[in-house]
Each structure stands twice: as structure tokens, then as C-alpha cells.
Amino acid sequence: MQTDDLLGDVEDLGSKLAEARKMVGRKIMGQDRVVDLTLAAILAGGHALLIGLPGLGKTRLVETLGTVMGLHDGRIQFTPDLMPSDILGAEVLEESDSGARSFRFIKGPVFCELLLADEINRASPRTQSALLQAMQEHEVSVAGHTHDLGEVFHVLATQNPLEQEGTYPLPEAQLDRFLVQIDVDYPDRDAERDILLATTGTEDASVSPIFSRAELIAAQTLLRRMPVGESVVEAILDLVRACRPDDPSAPQIVRDNVSWGPGPRATQALMLLARARALLDGRLAPGIDDIHALAAPVLSHRMALGYAARAEGIDLPDVIGQTVASVLQTEVAA
């Protein structure tokens, strides 16, 4: 593909994404940042973990995105008694009219294109781990047989940050499979007024598809072909490596307070999401500002504070913020 063709396709995709954002805005009000990060995760072909209190529109967002992006969506309500077979499916023994017996695989709700894993931390670790293979490899293994989930598969999981009784923290291996962690906050007063008027009347706003499945796959392919400047690549590497406490480039605040840092998936996530953010803003290539904006959503679930730091009340977002300011300010100056 020639450079001019690539730029033209990127511009066309940017226009289509603007339509998609406007369509989502009919249903989701006052959460522009949440919508953009979730759209970016889907464009990048990844999964997102949405953390917020009940009633902030997380489930509504997933359902709306399924329609707008032309995806078949599914939902699993995670509970303590949920079993892996309730997610993946199971093989059942059937007997034909002739008396012959054979096993038939019955697909579980994971066989969709956009999966809402509602309150994912309420299920046991055994059940949570049922999603690991699906999220990474787009396939599941049941009774020694592998079943493909398809080229398009995204998990949008929700989690309540306050109600921790009867919940199981997600293991680090599963957290790392989420491209981004999205904190869903309360809307401002004006947005809440719009929500109040829009949702208590006799009619609810409707949305229609903007993308088809094929168009989304084409968009995900195009995103990976977007050019990224060498300075942005170096900024990503410098930032992620600086967040590892045993790395020589780590600042003192990371060495003193962080027990473990992000792995290579964090660099991949920053690269893909920076491209997606540029597309959503109508730009042809990402810049250092994109890395600034995406650092906390990409890194916060891939790092952990040590016991002493938690006891002293040190905040992980502050550690990330100071590290970003230190590392990326150096990049800008260079």
C-alpha cells in the first residue's frame, strides 16, 4: 500500500470513528473518556477492565458498543457458584435413535464477539482462569478438544471498587491480559441532568450500527500499519522499563515503593492504544502526549505497591504520575 493510500484510509477511518462516538453518545452521556478508552481497546483488538460503582452505565456501554460496532454481544454475570463450564460450555453424552452414543459440545456464552464479564471478581479463581486462554489465544480447550472463538473476540469486564466482601482479586496473569484499566467516575452535574431527562421519559434513544464485523477487522488491521515515530517508541520503552523496581533506569520513587512492575505486554498496549487514540482524535500518527494520557490506564493494573508503601498511604497513581513526569519530560527535552 502506498503512503498516500494509507493516509487516505486512516482519514476515512477517523471519520467513521467520529460517527461511532456520536452514536454511542446518544446512550452514554458524560463519560467521553470512558467511551474513548473502550473504543480504543476494541480498535486495538484487546480487552478492557472497567472499574466503577454500580449505576454508572458500564453494562449499558457494553450493550451500546456491541450494536454500534456491529458485534454479537454476550453477557456472563459472575457469581461465587459459577463454574468454568458455565462460561466455556461442556460436552454432553447423547444417544441416537439407533442406540449409538456420542459426545456433543454445547457452546457456552463465551462464544460471542463482545463479552460482558459482569462483576468478574465475584467468581472463584478457578472460574476466573477459564477466561485466560480465551482472552490470549481466542480459543478454548474442553475435554481435550480446542474450539476457536473467531477472529473478533473482546472481553469488557466490570468490577466494583468498594464492595470487596465475597470477592476474589483477579490474579496478575489475568490482569495483564487486559489491555487497559478504565476507571468509571461519577458524571458532572450537567451530564447527570442530561441522563436524568433522557432516561426518565417515555422514549429511550436508539442506536444503529456504524461498523460491520468486516469493517472492524479492517480497522484493526489498518491501525497496526499506522506509522509511529522513533521518539514515541523510545518513550514507551523508557517509561515501561522505568516502572520496574529492579531496572537501572527506575527512579527512586519506583525502587522504594513498587514491588513488581509491568511486563512486555505493557509496551505493546501503549503502542496499540496510542495509535487508536490518535485515530479517535483525527490524527495520522501518535505523539508523546498520547503516552502521557495512556500511562495510568495501561500501567496501573500491571504494577503493585510494596507493603511498606501501602502502610504509609502512598498512592500508585501518584507513583505512576511522577514517573511519567520524570521520564517523558526527559524525552521531550531530548
Give structural attributes.
334 residues, AAA+ ATPase domain-containing protein, Rossmann fold, two-stranded antiparallel ribbon, alpha/beta
- CATH class bucket of the largest domain: Alpha Beta
Query: Could you list the spans in which at least 5 consecutive residues all have pLDDT below 50?
Result: none
CATH homologous superfamily placement of the largest domain: P-loop containing nucleotide triphosphate hydrolases
- DSSP strand (E) fraction? 15-25%
Number of domains: 2
Number of helices: 15
How many strands in all?
Answer: 11
How is the CATH topology of the largest domain named? Answer: Rossmann fold
Give me the side-by-side strand order of the main sheet: 2-5-8-1-9
Provide the residue-averaged pLDDT: 88
Give the fraction of residues assigned to helices: 40-55%
> Can you name the CATH architecture of the largest domain?
3-Layer(aba) Sandwich
Write the element-wise H/E pattern from the N-terminal end onward.
Answer: HHEHEHEEEHHEEEHEHHHHEHHEHH
C-alpha termini separation: 33 Å
Largest sheet: 5 strands, parallel
Structural class: alpha/beta
Question: How much is the radius of gyration in Å?
Answer: 21 Å
Domain AAA+ ATPase: 44-188
Organism: Aliiroseovarius pelagivivens
Pfam family, one: AAA_lid_2
InterPro entries: AAA+_ATPase (IPR003593), ATPase_AAA-3 (IPR011703), CbbQ/NirQ/NorQ/GpvN (IPR050764), ChlI/MoxR_AAA_lid (IPR041628), P-loop_NTPase (IPR027417)
